[in-house]
Amino acid sequence: MVGSFFGNVSFRWLLMGIIIVIILLITGVILNLNYQSSKNTLETHTQNLQENTEYSLLQSMILTDQGLRLFDQSLDYRLRGEMDRFLTAYRESGGDPAAMDLEGLKASFGDGYELYIINEKGVVEYTTYPPDHLMDFSVYPSFYNRLTSIREGNVFVSDRITAEFQTGKLRKFVYHPTADNRYILEIGYIDDEIKMMRSALLFREAATKIQDMNPYLTSIRIFNFLGDEVGNSSYISEEFRTEIIQSVLETGEGYVIEDPERATFTRYLFIDLTGNDNPPEMNLVAELTYTTAPVQEKLHNLFMSHLIIAVFAILVGGAVAFTTTRFITRPIDHLVEDTHAIRTGNLDHPIRQSQLPEVRSLSLSMAAMVASLKDMMERLQASEEELRQHNDELEMKVLDRTAALRDAHDEVNFYLDIITHDINNTNHTAQLYLELLSEESDPALASFIEKVRLSLRKSDEIIGNVTTLRRIQEMESELTTVSLRSVLAGEEERDDRITLRMKDGILVLADPLISQAFTNIVDNSLKFGGDDVTVSIDVEEEDDEAVIRISDTGPGISDSVKPHIFARYQRGTTERVRGKGLGLFIVQTLIQDRYGGSIRVGDRVPGDHTQGALFTIRLKKASNGL
Predict the structure, then answer these.
(1) Quick check: pTM over 0.85?
(2) Mean of the pLDDT values across residues 127-143?
(3) Coil, strand or helix at 105
């Protein structure tokens, strides 16, 4: 394909294409490196800006919390006296909160106070604030554990100004356990002046200032441990966001949600405020939503600018390549035109000379070659008639020799027919006389008579093998479908020492001569195995082949003989075999050369050749071969 393509493209266009490809590669590498560098710089800047923004947000939240904490602690002095009066009232009631006048005590404290009594189960059993009556803090495990620790102690505990669990209103809380450690007395306090003063230090305002630092940051939202948004009393909790916030608070690990359709991603950051001596309930989660659209737009503009530069470079490079190749290839075009004229038979056509040294040298060489070609053609024309006459004489000799070989072949076949026919007749006559002699002769001569009978059988076998070889050479190798069952069943029927094991329907590609191959193998096993020998024929299918295994219990074949067992005139053992050994040669010729199969000889018992031989034949199945 590649050679055909280049063979149809002129040198000018090929050279110009190579120059353009080189320009494209160089331009592409330079622009790609520049684009990747600019892209990495933009992404690094964006990443650094994001990291600085988030770090600034965390520091801002911590500083804001420190300011709020100092403000909240400034109220402790005001609430210690009221807590002492609250404890005195509890003692005067004999430790029975039901006997206490909580509303009267609240009125004596002044505006902005609420009183709570929390039992050991974490339930607000008594309170002046109805929304929190019977509120169960055990549903908030970390806070309940803290309450239990306070109840079992004996100290005044000041809490931060935090949002109420039920209403979300801000309130300053302080706690003190009763002397009997049965209850926790809690005071909540807030007034308009405190709200106004504390509003100067808000997490939301700090977050807004941080948001203005990053143009890719579209929103910042702060959430407390209840999942409520700080600074947004109208916020309605969303289940998925609440689960994320709880997970971040529990693990202290951030969380990211990407939204490719809107080109945004949202990060949830854990704000650890426990370093300011706060309880875990004071920790916050910041939700920062970034937009990737400006970065994607910048990357798109960067890519388009590089693409425009690439197109311009291609156009300029194409013009340079065209001009350069035209200058270089013009002398070559002249040379091609001149050689074309010479190729058409005009050997007198002049070859134009070029100013380029290499092309001029080529032109001079071609001119010399054309002169030599003219001289050679003249000599060829002179000897053409002589060569034609010589070819005619050689053709007549070949025809005469072919006819002589055909006559010799026919004569050989004629004598072979006479010899095989006459020897067969002579052998049959000798066998008849031998049978009469065995009936009338002295029993002492029986061994000699049997040797004569074996010699006659060997003669018949040799004639049969010669006849089979002639049929193999003369028959056209046209393979057809042959049923192995019908061929091998005949082997099993002719001797009760032969056992056949196979299923019906196995067809192979062969011809009628295949039966001779199996007969030769089986006859060898019966002949050399003795009267007690048994022969087993097993047939199996393996993929697209039929596998025939013929094994016997005879003396086997030694390892030194196996490599030559199928050679022409090879004998298994010199002690027991006489003759030329054509039987297994015929088997290999049929199975391997004629049918395209294979045959291998081995041991019936692997590793012990004295336990009998194993012939493995593989033939192509007709179902896959046709």
Answers:
(1) no
(2) 90
(3) helix
- Could you give the CA distance from residue 29 to residue 34 in angstroms, rounded to a whole number? 9
For the residues 342-370, what does the mean pLDDT come to? 73
Q: Which amino acid is at 214?
A: N
Q: Are 102 and 86 a contacting pair, CB within 8 Å?
A: no
Average pLDDT, integer, range 346-356: 73
CA separation for the pair 496, 534 (Å, rounded):
9
499 strand-pairing partners: 536
Q: DSSP assignment of 536-587, as one string?
A: EEEEEEETTEEEEEEEE-SS---TTTGGGTTSTT--S-TTT--S---HHHHH
Q: Roughly what angle, to the nearest 10 degrees, separates helices 293-343 and 357-440?
A: 80
The contacts of residue 363 (CB under 8 Å, 6+ apart) are 335, 338, 351, 352, 353, 354
| Least confident among 116-125, 187-196, 339-348 | 339-348
d(CA 531, CA 64): 113
Rounded to whole angstroms, how far apart are CA atoms 42 and 272? 31
| 285: three-class secondary structure by DSSP | strand
Torsion of CA 353, 355, 357, 362, to 10 degrees: -20
CB-based contact 262:249 (threshold 8 Å): no
Give the pair of three-digit tokens for residue 401. Answer: 């020799």
Residue with tokens 């048994």: 534
Q: Which residue has the tokens 């709020």?
A: 68
Task: Please name the helix (run of DSSP H) or strand (run of DSSP E) that holds residue 239, with its range, or none.
Answer: helix 239-251
Task: Report the C-alpha gap between 159 and 176 in whole angstroms.
Answer: 11
Other beta carbons less than 10 A from residue 411's beta carbon: 10
In angstroms, the CA 456 to CA 437 distance is 15
Which tokens go with 591? 């199975």
- 514-516-519-524 Cα dihedral, nearest 10 degrees: -120
Distance CA 41, CA 28 (A): 20
Strands 535-542 and 598-605: unpaired
Compute the chain's Rg from CA coordinates: 56
Which residue in this structure is represented by tokens 């010669």?
466
Run of H or E including 219: strand 217-223
CB-CB neighbours of 392 under 10 Å: 9
Q: 163 has which bridge partners?
A: 170
- Mind listing the pLDDT tens digit for each residue in 15-40? 778 888 888 889 888 988 888 888 88
What is the sign of the dihedral through the CA atoms of 75, 77, 80 and 81?
A: negative
Say if residues 20 and 321 touch (Cβ distance below 8 Å): yes
Q: Which of 153, 225, 145, 140 is nearest to 185 (CA)?
A: 153
Per-residue pLDDT tens over the stretch 508-547: 999 888 888 899 899 888 888 888 899 999 999 999 999 9
**Separation between Cα atoms, residue 517 and residue 587, nearest integer Å:** 5
Joined together, the tokens standing for residue 557 give: 């074949």
Asked if 217 contacts 56 with a C-beta cutoff of 8 angstroms, the reply is no
Tell me the three state secondary structure of residue 255.
strand
Which residue did the predictor score with more confidence, 259 or 440? 259
Cβ–Cβ under 8 Å, residues 624 and 544: yes
Q: CB–CB of 133/127 below 8 Å? A: yes
Structure tokens at 12: 């000018």
